[in-house]
Write a structure and sequence with these properties.
4 copies of one chain form a homotetramer. Chain A has helices at about 20-30, 40-55, 70-80, 95-105, 120-130, 155-165, 210-220, 250-265, 270-290, 315-325, 355-370, 375-390, and strands at about 10, 60-65, 85-90, 110-115, 135-140, 145, 150, 165-170, 190, 205-210, 305-310, 330, 330-335, 340-345. In chain A, strand 6 and strand 7 (about 150) form a beta hairpin. In chain A, the strands form 4 sheets. In chain A, strands 2-10-9-8-5-3-4 form a 7-stranded mixed beta sheet, sandwiched between helices. The two termini of chain A are about 35 Å apart. By secondary structure, the first copy, chain A, is of the alpha/beta class. At the A-B interface, helix 1, helix 2, helix 3, helix 8 and strand 13 of A face helix 1, helix 2, helix 3, helix 8 and strand 13 of B.
Chain lengths: ~400, ~400, ~400, ~400
């Protein structure tokens, strides 16, 4: 039997959009209130205040009403001005992609790049800042999802803090799945979203903004106003007694509220442990089958995504198609430079369950064998299980 | 008894966000698929092709993943360039608001304005175009929601077509609730959304684009690319075999699919008749209580919204608060120039039910009386019922 | 326009099945767990213990997995044996219907009956018990829904208690909508369900059982065991560490959990006030239109249902059909003896909203007029509103 | 990490209640209509007529509003009378359990029993009927779930048909998951439910009744009337123009409608193939780990459930608890005689996915190892995958 491409898959183990928690789906199905209904305004304020406690930002986070690419573009447009010098830390496709938005603001871009299977060393950041003391903003991507690698963001943040530049951090695919927040990495602009490890659908962005960032945006003449790209317009929108610049995505806010309830009820520590153990089991299984991780060193690998290097002779797209047709399991491709060179198994939100690592390893190995690249699936699964048992 | 401001209201009769159809809420709760899962790509293509048939646009409509203010800003940025002369037809707050986005592109803005309780006459448009034959783009808002007035958009479109300018039309709060589409008004850029008369939550925009508009945008150097504001990036995204520029709002697309199924099953003619009769009954009830409509002439009034002029001596915000506290009914305020001067009763999507007009009239009259402005509620309700019976 | 009979109505103002609260619908959509999964067993116990606190029964209530006719038949079969003398208090169709089940157990049935538009006086019960001191069980229906009348059950319970008979009470359509519970009426077998004033769909029964009733059932040789009709089998099933006699209706239990959360959050007093005011407004409106209530005296009328006597010359079924076709509003017919003679407007759970009384009155009056029985709808609505305002 | 017993599990692979299809959960969340609303009556009729085509019964199936134990008890009470001789075919706990209900009707019960790890041979039935030509009713359980064994029901039905007795068949946990229906096995009373392979929650029963059975029930004086146990009362209730004997479970009927849509859209053949392959893979994996199936011969094993014999020295309850705590996977215990002696892995409805067999095998093996009974999990998973690949 083969799963039809038009039929629902059995298991979506991707890096986003990710499967949503059942309670989030039910939250999305809540009555749609008028945005100026006090019941909704109260909900909105509560959601934002709860976000403040989990994001640990200096000020109440801003919700923007589009998936996090909106937040990244908006942050670049709002925070960066013509006189800025931006140090962009590039260890993957997403960090590199930020350059385009940053450059639009007229700033000078300085790049510190490493190969896309490696990570940024804090010492290299320190050195870069020593060479360019005029850097005003440092931009980093914590988990560069297309590579499945995680930069040591707290340590980098400490370096940036010593230098004094503003620190803009993309934690879209790491926040909620591992211990990172605006305080831990001293971010001035902490950009994330509910659509990865919090288990919501894509449609919202979360921005944790420091007081310094608010001041910088207010002073930046080119910072958007009266625009979907404006962050400044939303500064006080979290308050129940303040207007929204435009209509918020009511249903998605309801979904986010449910996600936060789950996150707090399970406890961040427990959630992170679940992500970490799933990733550990997945890596163990993949390696035991004789396959390679994309990250050059296993310690670079993300707890929210396992990027598997595509074996020589295998067509990556065909491999994923086979996994879906044969087992009903959906995985993610690479992006840009990593497209066709790796497959990503997501461990995010509801899919960060150790047993799913076993399933993913089995499906991966089974499909590889079907494409003529025999691996010892049994060994892989046994290793994944052993990792869980040791967990 | 008083309804708590934090409790769900009984009935949301607003002009948006509107109550969603139950089937739309269930659609939102569907499994969240990976955007590159072929099952989702197929759904996405089907939704867009269905939209083409209901919007009657020349090309397959573009979905943008934010509520329609995104589409309006994006359309201004994409279609309008430095050399353009834009004739902006202003009969209300929303049309006036478009000027800001249009002007950013460097174009010259020519305004044809009428008082906000009136509508644009096609002959005035013809005259304006005669005076400025160099106009390249005409912009109009079909139903300027903050006024509850509807411009004769098909007739205006015919005038614009004779002149040859591109016609950009905002039908966000009219499409789906009355007979208007891209073909009927000859729009080159037909901007609407599922969040009003189609009964979805706010989070998506729909753009029906003519071939001429695609050519103009392609030729406009300032048209956004690699941006949330880009329309061009999404041109082929409806095709199941093409990539998305960024992650679409999966859950909202699922909700839209359900809304389109409902719209087609009930039949647009029947849906429009339902909206029209609700509005007629509502106007009859309001007038019979001795109150005034905001639109100068009843024939200007929208079938999707009844704007009621606030009686002298009444605080409009207090009136709506009283209606909610006393009856659990939520209505919309005015916006900008109309704020505090009118209250809007929405007839959109699931709330466009004639009996809700009766409820709205009763609640409106009851709360007015409670605030010391006695009206004959019985007369109002009887008139509303009579209008339904005549309907 | 006419609403199609196959289309969803706008408003269901019936006496059951009633519209469910949105949160209950979402509860029904929760994941279906294995009944022996500890997570479900824990939920089940919590639901039952919560029921104990709201039903105020001596022991933890029993959930039976069918709508309350199951509970009534099961209670008759379990509690009543061949040697019993049952005093059945009959003020309506449902109380009368209980006789059949009671008689099956071989007991002697003594009837105290009043016309179906009246109620049972406690003094009459005292007198009946004086005449038949050998009565072992008294059965009563608190709110005989087909008549919309409410017996003074607490006072009757006091009389029964003085006598010493077991008291079996059907509060299916009153519990949760007015102040009544097992303690208030001293019920030994308090039979209700979540499908009326708690706002759940029909599928479950709730039985509050006194210690005396448990002893009586245990001693009744004919009490069902190994049967869908067994209550005894379920005695300890509420405990997380005990087995279920058969598979419980998992989804309905999830819905009930949501309903109880709502009931407690709003507060029983507030819920009852909402029901009472809705009924009061409804009665005021009906009477002001010159129509008659079915209950002989207004003080007999239920706060959860307004039974309107069908005017002479009107076909009751045609009237309801007209109300649905014209306004999309669904009301309930009578049953048995009251069928065709009255129409019932339900005020139960989510529909117990004063503004819905206005809507019901308007729709009722409008349809009557359409059928040739002109009434002053305006007067009716004004009276309903005045009742709310006085509320 | 350990999964909390109060937290939702990751995967419910039980034999019922089973996980529901997402579309069924959304169906349950549909508006609850009045049962006499024509829109609901139309839905009810359509559901029953659709059931007729999939059950292939002579007459339109009856829905009873309780899980299938209600149907079994009701069928025994309705079809069997004092003069009957019932041949009860017993190959497991459930068939044996039917004896109690059958005997209540006053019939003589003749038993043909085999060990609970075996199945009934058609020739044995023929022989039993030869010995007792006075048998009027033959009762069988197709898939005796507590044993995971499937009787050759079509062949048995042919034997019964030749004899002329009425044939009562329980296919609760097989129908919808393998090729069996009322026509294939010539059942006169075909009892099943939507709560297993159709992927609904437990709360409804489906009875496919032959004309002969209707005649027999009508002629049976003891057949229940005015009772939850009555089948006769519901004979015409499927018709939109006929009353319901009591209130149907509206939400569950909505869920069933969604389940039937899915079943027909996927196609019964495809659904059955999916179940068969899942079971085959599961058996292969279990056997390859050196474990034993409960069924004496593999060909007796059900395609909807894999019953695994508990290894010596292992506490079965502890094993399932470990599987849940360690992996979040929920399996079923045995029942009655098989309790503690086997564990059941369900392949029913949404869980009948081959990849879930891999997961189940891995979890089973992993937990066994954790309890000190080492097995070669890798070998098991490889065998399961190989079975899928061969599938």
């Amino acid at each position: 039997m083969r799963y039809a491409t038009t039929a629902l898959p059995v298991l979506t183990l991707t890096t986003g959009p990710v499967d949503a928690y059942p309670a989030v789906l039910r939250g999305l199905a809540s009555p749609v209130l008028y945005d100026y209904d006090p019941a909704f305004q109260t909900t909105y304020q509560r959601v934002c205040e709860t976000l403040k406690s989990v994001v640990r930002s200096e000020t109440v986070p801003v919700l923007l009403h589009g998936e996090p690419v909106l937040a990244l573009e908006a942050a670049a447009a709002s925070l960066i001005g013509p006189g800025d010098v931006v140090l962009n830390l590039v260890s993957g496709v997403y960090a590199k992609g930020f350059e385009g938005w940053a450059a639009r603001s007229g700033a000078e871009i300085v790049e510190l790049a490493v190969p896309y299977d490696s990570v940024i060393e804090p010492s290299a950041v320190a050195e870069a800042l020593r060479q360019r003391p005029d850097v005003t903003i440092v931009a980093a991507c914590h988990h560069d999802t297309p590579s499945g690698t995680v930069n040591p963001i707290d340590e980098i943040g400490a370096v940036v803090a010593r230098h004094g530049a503003l620190f803009l951090v993309d934690t879209v695919s790491s926040f909620g799945g591992m211990p990172v927040d605006a305080a831990s990495c001293r971010a001035d602009m902490f950009i994330t979203g509910p659509n990865k490890c919090l288990g919501c659908p894509p449609a919202l962005s979360i921005l944790g903004v420091s007081e310094r960032s608010w001041a910088k945006m207010a002073a930046t003449a080119t910072a958007p106003r009266d625009s979907i790209l404006s962050i400044l317009d939303w500064r006080d929108a979290w308050r129940a007694d303040r207007p929204f610049p435009f209509t918020p995505s009511v249903a998605e806010v309801n979904g986010l509220e449910a996600a936060l309830d789950l996150y707090i009820a399970e406890g961040p520590d427990a959630v992170w442990a679940r992500h970490a153990l799933t990733a550990k089991a997945c890596r163990a299984g993949i390696l035991a089958m004789g396959l390679s991780l994309w990250p050059r060193e296993e310690r670079f690998a993300s707890p929210t995504c396992t990027a598997v290097r595509t074996p020589v002779g295998i067509d990556e797209a065909a491999l994923r198609a086979e996994i879906r047709a044969r087992y009903g399991v959906v995985l993610s491709s690479g992006r840009g430079e990593t497209l066709g060179r790796l497959t990503r198994i997501g461990h995010m939100g509801p899919t960060a369950q150790p047993i799913h690592a076993v399933t993913a390893v089995a499906a991966f190995g089974g499909a590889l064998a079907a494409l003529g690249h025999a691996v010892d699936v049994g060994r892989g699964v046994a290793a994944a299980l052993a990792a869980i048992d040791a967990g």
